[in-house]
Amino acid sequence: MGKKRWEDLPPDVRRSVEKQLGEKIVRVLDCDGNADFSGIVHTEHNVVFVKAASQCAQSLTRPRAEEERRNRLLPSTAPRILWRNQNLDWVVTGYEYVPGRPVDLRPGSRDLRTLVRLLAELAVREVAGSSYFESMGARWSAESPWRTLATRKPHTLTDWDRQRIAEFTDMELHVFDVLSSGTSIAHGELSESSILIGDGGVPRIVGWTWALRAPAWVDAAVLAVRLVEAGHTPAEAESIVSGIPEWKNADAATLDAFSVALLGLRVADSPGSVLTCAARRYAQHRFIDKPAPTTGSRPS
């Protein structure tokens, strides 16, 4: 969950939420999130999703300053901002509450077909207003995971990683350029918790705070790794996301490079996690017929 629980927030922050809602808060469910606090707030007649971020957390509050404008540019599946309060210490934002259960990404799930249909609809090559969003290429380039891992965290690499580290470093540079040219809007962090299945099996995607400007195939490529994490083979995962035309028609070499860059980010963040293992398994699948480069050589 977030860094703080509801009862950990300053009393004036909690009172400001109650004042905004116009009635007494009767229940709060603390939730996972990247803000200091994220939770579902219930009154007798209303339910909202609330995020609270300390103004001291500059890395969070800077992007939130533009969040209202960007929120209006997101697809209709995204929850809308209902209100926003700000003082010298805290920024508190109320969002439309989206009821539903987390999507089931496991093999045989009935959710997969409707999810793929939704992502195909969202994968629009050019989205009006995408220029207001930070480029995924710029964000990832600032992290340059493989270059960083090679120089600062070599102990986190597997033998397979080490054999290809020079190639991976070149590939991530290539994909940074491709990502920077994108004119769609990508969620970028699709997972079971960010895809909710509502009444009638209709999916909605939440958690768009860090949405980025990117090519239209990006979310499908991210989903492929999540499907492997959920128990699909890499080939099965690709068969599923091939129902999204923008991914199916994307350049194969670029998808290879994206899988490598995404693996680098996962290794840098949590080298031993289940998600990182899935990302490595998927990247290895993309390299099945490609021999490891000779030691000391770099791809041309």
From TrEMBL:
GO molecular function: transferase activity
Keywords: Transferase
Lineage: superkingdom: Bacteria
Identification of the protein by name: Phosphotransferase enzyme family protein
Organism: Amycolatopsis rubida
